[in-house]
Write a structure and sequence with these properties.
The protein has about 70 residues and is mostly helical. The chain contains 1 helix and 2 strands, in the order ββα. The longest helix is centred in the middle third of the chain and has 47 residues, at about 20-65. The radius of gyration is 24 Å and the shape is rod-shaped.
Length: about 70
């Protein structure tokens, strides 16, 4: 039993696809992988952004209060 492709509720054996369909499937898999990578990268950047915002808040608070609030 080989790999199957599910499309619009029907299943197809990948081995039975035409060469052109297999090439398109490779491109589809590449696109899906790239989308996931970019989604992960976006989440990483969002997390970094939140960290930078917290850091600047701490910096502004410490400069107003004259206190050093570093976590280091």
């Amino acid at each position: 039993m080989g790999r199957k492709l599910s499309l619009d509720g029907a299943e197809y054996e990948v081995a039975d696809l035409s060469d052109q369909a297999k090439t398109i499937l490779i491109s589809l898999n590449f696109a899906n992988t790239r989308i996931q990578e970019l989604t992960n990268l976006q989440a990483l950047h969002q997390r970094a952004k939140k960290s930078y915002i917290e850091s600047i808040k701490k910096e502004m608070l410490s400069s107003k209060a004259g206190l050093v609030l570093n976590d280091e």
